[in-house]
């Protein structure tokens, strides 16, 4: 890319930014320094002229662009051209629109605006209904969802309601207006926690701190884990005391109680015999003779 092309591209981008910020005069000042036969320059100038209501200039630019240039954006240019024709026709300048080569809903919509200005409401109504069907089919093929399609249909439906009102069908027009102005309320889906089971009753203590819940058990440090082992009453003592009968009546047969048995006495021990004292052992001293 040469330096001149780089400068021209930067200048066009600058003009387009002015156009997006609605500073049309500054955008035109930048575009005048560029090649006036370049398609993108003519197209942007036509857009600015339409917004400034210079419809004659916009029409001449679009007509020249459609005659000398052709690409994938021809449909948009034709749609804009018909929109300019409709505005000129509303100002008293007679314009004829080709109604045969209308193959998109944008072209049909703009052509219907021209018919409305001309007072041909029946033809406009038929063309708008056709545009509405084409809009549904084409946008559905493009993969748009239902809400996006309704947004695109809103201008066409509004125009249909206007035509019906002009034709004297106020009831049907009011019905369409109410459908358009009806807010699209989306129900928000409830966010549920992971592993949520609706069949299980929620814990009533779930709002309490963990330490205050009934099922809470404090974890002991492993150092003090076994300190409670061995404390408290033993099982044998508890069992023995449980088996004692404290009632006044005894379940045994009536009569004198047997005498208590005496434990056998151990024989008396005699005097202990003492062993003779042993002589003390003489320890040998370590070292030499003495």
TrEMBL record:
<protein>
    <recommendedName>
        <fullName>Signal recognition particle subunit SRP72</fullName>
    </recommendedName>
</protein>
<keyword id="KW-0963">Cytoplasm</keyword>
<keyword id="KW-0733">Signal recognition particle</keyword>
<keyword id="KW-0687">Ribonucleoprotein</keyword>
<dbReference type="InterPro" id="IPR026270">
    <property type="entry name" value="SRP72"/>
</dbReference>
<dbReference type="InterPro" id="IPR013699">
    <property type="entry name" value="Signal_recog_part_SRP72_RNA-bd"/>
</dbReference>
<feature type="compositionally biased region" description="Low complexity">
    <location>
        <begin position="247"/>
        <end position="256"/>
    </location>
</feature>
<feature type="domain" description="Signal recognition particle SRP72 subunit RNA-binding">
    <location>
        <begin position="172"/>
        <end position="218"/>
    </location>
</feature>
<dbReference type="Pfam" id="PF17004">
    <property type="entry name" value="SRP_TPR_like"/>
</dbReference>
<feature type="region of interest" description="Disordered">
    <location>
        <begin position="188"/>
        <end position="290"/>
    </location>
</feature>
<dbReference type="InterPro" id="IPR011990">
    <property type="entry name" value="TPR-like_helical_dom_sf"/>
</dbReference>
<dbReference type="Pfam" id="PF08492">
    <property type="entry name" value="SRP72"/>
</dbReference>
<dbReference type="GO" id="GO:0006614">
    <property type="term" value="P:SRP-dependent cotranslational protein targeting to membrane"/>
</dbReference>
<dbReference type="GO" id="GO:0008312">
    <property type="term" value="F:7S RNA binding"/>
</dbReference>
<feature type="compositionally biased region" description="Basic residues">
    <location>
        <begin position="278"/>
        <end position="290"/>
    </location>
</feature>
<feature type="compositionally biased region" description="Basic and acidic residues">
    <location>
        <begin position="203"/>
        <end position="215"/>
    </location>
</feature>
<dbReference type="InterPro" id="IPR031545">
    <property type="entry name" value="SRP72_TPR-like"/>
</dbReference>
<dbReference type="GO" id="GO:0005786">
    <property type="term" value="C:signal recognition particle, endoplasmic reticulum targeting"/>
</dbReference>
<keyword id="KW-0256">Endoplasmic reticulum</keyword>
<comment type="similarity">
    <text>Belongs to the SRP72 family.</text>
</comment>
<dbReference type="GO" id="GO:0005783">
    <property type="term" value="C:endoplasmic reticulum"/>
</dbReference>
<dbReference type="GO" id="GO:0043022">
    <property type="term" value="F:ribosome binding"/>
</dbReference>
């Amino acid at each position: 890319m040469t330096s001149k092309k780089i400068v021209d591209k930067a200048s066009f981008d600058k003009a387009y930014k002015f156009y997006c910020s609605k500073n049309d005069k500054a955008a035109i000042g930048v575009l005048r320094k560029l090649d006036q036969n370049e398609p993108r320059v003519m197209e942007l100038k036509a857009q600015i002229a339409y917004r400034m209501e210079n419809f004659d200039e916009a029409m001449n630019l679009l007509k020249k662009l459609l005659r000398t240039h052709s690409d994938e954006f021809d449909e948009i240019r034709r749609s804009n051209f018909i929109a300019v024709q409709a505005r000129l026709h509303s100002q008293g300048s007679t314009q004829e629109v080709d109604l045969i080569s209308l193959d998109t809903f944008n072209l049909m919509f703009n052509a219907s605006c021209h018919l409305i200005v001309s007072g041909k409401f029946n033809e406009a109504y038929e063309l708008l209904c056709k545009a509405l069907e084409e809009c549904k089919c084409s946008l559905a093929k493009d993969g748009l969802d239902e809400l996006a399609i309704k947004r695109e249909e809103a201008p066409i439906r509004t125009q249909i309601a206007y035509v019906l009102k002009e034709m004297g069908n106020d009831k049907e027009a009011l019905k369409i207006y109410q459908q358009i102005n009806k807010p699209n309320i989306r129900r928000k889906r409830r966010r549920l926690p992971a592993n949520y089971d609706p069949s299980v009753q929620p814990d009533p203590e779930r709002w309490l701190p963990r330490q205050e819940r009934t099922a809470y058990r404090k974890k002991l440090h492993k150092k003090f884990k076994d300190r409670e082992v061995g404390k408290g009453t033993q099982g044998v003592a508890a069992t023995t005391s449980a088996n004692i009968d404290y009632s006044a009546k005894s379940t045994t047969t009536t009569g004198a109680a047997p005498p208590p048995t005496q434990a056998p006495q151990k024989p008396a021990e005699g005097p202990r015999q003492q062993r003779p004292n042993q002589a003390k052992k003489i320890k040998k001293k370590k070292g030499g003779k003495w």
